């Protein structure tokens, strides 16, 4: 058994994925590990380049774009590590961060199931990764509105962080400190190390989630089973940032589908509010886009929002309660 299995899901991010793998090889020492890359049917030559440059990598070709949760599950089910590192393809490992996360789990309390590093952007600024599962109704409402009508057009991020960060840190994770080791509800799925025995008990990712919310749902199951989750800032990585998001319009559609699924399954008391906000916001955005398109073309965005409206109209909350999309490790005989 390896100390850690590193599972990277890749979709049309050939050069970024190879940069991620190279950083793992160069910056991981003192532990045994395997790298498993799941390619979600990329068309940019990812498979060929990974096979050529990194023959030691276990490469799994999914045959279609399964999304993040199902892609990770493919790799996790093939893993042999005591710990499993869930990793985005746009992460660069720094200063033996993976070994530090392994040490945090080995030396931490027996009920510690997940640890995550401090994440920074390419420019050195913080990429928030330590999260609370519920920010409160007000912040949830603002989050939905911000997705469709971004506040950054009126309130620049740098202004918010520098001027209002100390106050906002009480209410929103993007403005809280990430410099101290702390118990959290979940760490961002872009880089999270999980104890194998924990997911043997609670199951893997729920494959109803194509993109987004899968790590929150898994973390909720882990916490309910009595385990803890920690931010471990001594380990640090770089997040290149939203590479796959830039490549497909499907991401926004699937994020909203995942959000509705999450609230229907985990927060039913808030589901109707989140559902209505998304539905009304999508209709308003569609009207806005049609008006703007009279001056210049917004065909792509219009089509996206037509699909979002359709997702909302056809969403069936009872389906979110299903458990048949959560794989389990095979029973050991």
Give a description of the structure.
The chain is α/β, with parallel strands linked by helices. It folds into two domains: 2-130 and 173-241, Alpha-Beta Complex (Spore Coat Polysaccharide Biosynthesis Protein SpsA, Chain A); 137-171 and 249-317, no CATH class. It contains twelve helices and eleven strands. The chain has helices spanning 14-27, 46-53, 68-77, 97-107, 137-148, 157-168, 196-202, 214-224, 243-247, 250-266, 268-292, 299-314; strands spanning 2-10, 33-39, 58-61, 81-88, 91-93, 112-121, 130-131, 182-183, 186-187, 191-195, 228-239. Strands 1, 2, 3, 4, 5, 6, 8, 10 and 11 form a nine-stranded mixed sheet that branches. α1 (14-27) runs parallel beside α2 (46-53), α5 runs parallel beside α11 and α11 packs antiparallel against α12 (299-314). The chain is globular and about 60 Å long. The chain starts with a strand and ends in a 19-residue tail after the last helix.
Question: What's the number of helices?
Answer: 12
**Tally of discrete structural domains:** 2
Task: Sum up the overall morphology in one term.
Answer: globular
Helix content: 40-55%
Question: What gap, in angstroms, lies between the N and C termini?
Answer: 17 Å
Helices and strands in order:
Blueprint: E1 2-10, H1 14-27, E2 33-39, H2 46-53, E3 58-61, H3 68-77, E4 81-88, E5 91-93, H4 97-107, E6 112-121, E7 130-131, H5 137-148, H6 157-168, E8 182-183, E9 186-187, E10 191-195, H7 196-202, H8 214-224, E11 228-239, H9 243-247, H10 250-266, H11 268-292, H12 299-314
Parallel strand pairs: 1-2, 1-4, 2-3, 6-11
Antiparallel strand pairs: 4-10, 5-11, 6-10, 7-9, 8-11
């Amino acid at each position: 058994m390896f100390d850690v299995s590193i599972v990277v899901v890749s979709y049309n991010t050939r050069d970024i994925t190879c940069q991620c793998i190279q950083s793992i090889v160069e910056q991981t020492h003192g532990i045994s590990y395997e790298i498993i890359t799941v390619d979600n049917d990329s068309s940019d030559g990812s498979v060929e380049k990974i096979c050529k440059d990194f023959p030691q990598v276990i490469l799994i070709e999914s045959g279609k774009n399964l999304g993040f949760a199902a892609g990770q599950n493919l790799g996790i089910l093939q893993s042999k590590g005591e710990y499993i590192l869930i990793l985005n393809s746009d992460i660069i490992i720094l200063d033996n961060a993976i070994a530090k996360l392994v040490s945090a789990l080995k030396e931490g309390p027996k009920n510690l199931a997940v640890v995550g590093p401090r994440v920074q952007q390419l420019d050195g600024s913080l990429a928030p990764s330590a999260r609370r599962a519920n920010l409160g109704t007000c912040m949830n409402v603002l989050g939905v509105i911000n997705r469709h009508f971004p506040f950054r057009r009126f309130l620049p991020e740098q202004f918010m962080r520098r001027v209002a960060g100390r106050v906002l840190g009480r209410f929103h994770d993007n403005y809280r400190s990430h410099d101290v080791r702390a118990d959290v509800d979940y760490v961002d799925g872009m880089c999270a190390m999980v104890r194998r025995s924990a997911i043997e008990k609670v199951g893997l990712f729920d494959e109803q989630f194509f993109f987004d919310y899968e790590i929150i749902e898994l973390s909720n199951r882990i916490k309910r089973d009595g385990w803890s989750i920690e931010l471990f800032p001594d380990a640090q990585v770089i997040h290149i940032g939203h590479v796959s998001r830039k490549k497909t319009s499907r991401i926004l559609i699937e994020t909203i589908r995942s959000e509705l699924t999450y609230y229907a399954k985990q927060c039913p008391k808030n589901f109707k509010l989140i559902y209505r906000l998304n539905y009304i916001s999508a209709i308003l955005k569609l009207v806005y886009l049609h008006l703007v398109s009279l001056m210049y073309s917004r065909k792509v965005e219009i089509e996206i929002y037509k699909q979002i409206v359709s997702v909302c109209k056809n969403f069936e909350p009872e389906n979110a309660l299903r458990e048949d999309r959560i794989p389990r490790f095979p029973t050991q005989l």
